[in-house]
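Tokens as discussed.
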């Protein structure tokens, strides 16, 4: 079975990646929403078009709210990953400190290789 090696820096890198992704996410969604807005009045002016525009505006407003809420979660995730590094490092040191003391290894006799 393969093993996963984790180091404290793994959490720091992941935290940085979340912060970078937050910026990318915000930029990407802004471009998408701006592109939709640039389409202009594509629905027309009849009753069906007006109903569509009203529902579309509502849905777009909700989408922007959801995107903003999701974007605001990214820093909290990054903070928790950074905190995990601290917990991870503390746990490593606690484990090392709790290891039993090991006496000096036996010495070999210089001539015949026997333990002294």
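Sequence:
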């Amino acid at each position: 079975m393969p093993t996963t090696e984790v180091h404290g820096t793994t959490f720091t890198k992941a935290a940085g990646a979340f912060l970078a992704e937050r910026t990318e996410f915000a930029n990407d969604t802004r471009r998408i929403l701006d592109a939709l807005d640039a389409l202009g009045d594509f629905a027309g002016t009849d009753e069906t078009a007006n109903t569509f525009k009203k529902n579309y505006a509502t849905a777009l407003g909700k989408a922007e709210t959801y995107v903003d809420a999701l974007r605001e979660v990214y820093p909290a995730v990054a903070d928790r990953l950074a905190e995990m590094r601290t917990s991870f490092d503390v746990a490593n040191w606690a484990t090392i400190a709790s290891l039993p003391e090991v006496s000096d290894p036996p010495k070999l006799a210089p001539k015949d290789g026997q333990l002294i």
